[in-house]
Amino acid sequence: LSTTLAMTALFAWLAIGAYLAMNQGLQALGEEAEHVASGDLTGRVSVPSRDELHDVAEHFNHMAGNMQSLLRTLRETAQKLGDATTVVSTSAMTVANSSGQQSEAASAMAAAVEELTVGINEISDHTAGAQRITDEAQILSAEGGHTVDQTVAEMQLIARSVNESADVIAELGR
What we know:
The structure is a single chain. This protein has 174 residues and is mostly helical. Helix content is 89%, strand content 0%.
């Protein structure tokens, strides 16, 4: 009888320990999923156990890191693109202004005006090409933002699912 009681107590102690470890890991994963779903991609989940929950936490951390890197790259690219567009636009305006002044000064010379007109048309074509590239980049940036929004929505679903699982486990533990 004492052996049975000891075995029962040992089993109960192991079951409670496993429950607490799993519940703590699920709660940590759920809390971090909520942070990621709200846009905070800096945190990471730490699950000290070496089980499936640890693997999920590692994959979650890897995913959050990839999302953080993707967002950083997207922001940097958008900033560089905006800077380049500003430089091209300023250069095009400067060239257009200079060309206009030269055209007025050389209005008496028809051949010179014709050469300047051809130059201005080429600049205009290049500016239009740069504008098309900028428009395409803005579309790609918007699509990237949409992808991030979808990812955040999926993360919110994951967070809810993890929280529901934690609640069920907690309820089973009672």
